[in-house]
UniProtKB/TrEMBL annotation:
Gene: Ggact
Protein family: Belongs to the gamma-glutamylcyclotransferase family.
Higher taxonomy: Eukaryota, Metazoa, Chordata, Craniata, Vertebrata
GO molecular function per UniProt: gamma-glutamylaminecyclotransferase activity; transferase activity
Cited function: Catalyzes the formation of 5-oxo-L-proline from L-gamma-glutamyl-L-epsilon-lysine.
Annotated source species: Sagittarius serpentarius
Domain Gamma-glutamylcyclotransferase AIG2-like residues, every copy: 4-105
Protein name as catalogued: Gamma-glutamylaminecyclotransferase
Length: 156
């Protein structure tokens, strides 16, 4: 099992969460909530209003999201869903645990107790330069105050 941190449309209550609970795509077990240890710019960009975490450590906000434990099948699905490695790149990042529900071995409990876990995160280094000038968010909600409605793939 791998640990994945999601900050956008795959979170609970968001438009693509359905994929996280679709066992035909693999297993994803909610472990808790967290935020990036380093600051990153989280922007909403493109004609479909997609949330992107730009891989520019030290800039932006501590981005909030959810931590999942996923099997290889789900990780492969997420790679395809996120257009990895072209649109997003999957990298390991340190995530500060804000709230932990996960159950696991001693290593899991110790990591959660220490307050920081390593997770795969889909961020991007391949973006138009003007995205750096967009507003930065500390968390994403598809129906947030930003007024930028996410466009589902099936509607594009």
């Amino acid at each position: 099992m791998a640990r994945v941190f999601v900050y956008g449309t795959l979170k609970k209550g968001q438009p693509n969460y359905k994929h996280m609970i679709n066992t035909a795509k693999g297993l994803a077990k909610f472990q808790g909530r967290g935020r990036t240890v380093e600051k990153y710019p989280l922007v909403i960009a493109g004609k479909y209003n997609i949330p992107y975490m730009l891989n520019i450590p030290g800039t932006g906000h501590h981005v909030a999201g959810e931590i999942y434990s996923v099997d290889d099948q789900m990780l492969q699905f997420l790679d395809e869903f996120e257009g990895c490695p072209d649109m997003y790149q999957r990298t390991l990042m340190r995530i500060e645990v804000v709230e932990w529900e996960g159950k696991g071995g001693a290593g899991e409990a110790r990591a959660a107790a220490e307050g920081v876990v390593e997770c795969f995160v889909y961020s991007t280094t391949t973006y138009p330069p003007e995205w750096v000038g967009l507003p930065y968010h500390d968390s994403y909600d598809s129906s947030g105050k930003h007024g930028l409605s996410y466009v589902l793939r099936e509607s594009r």
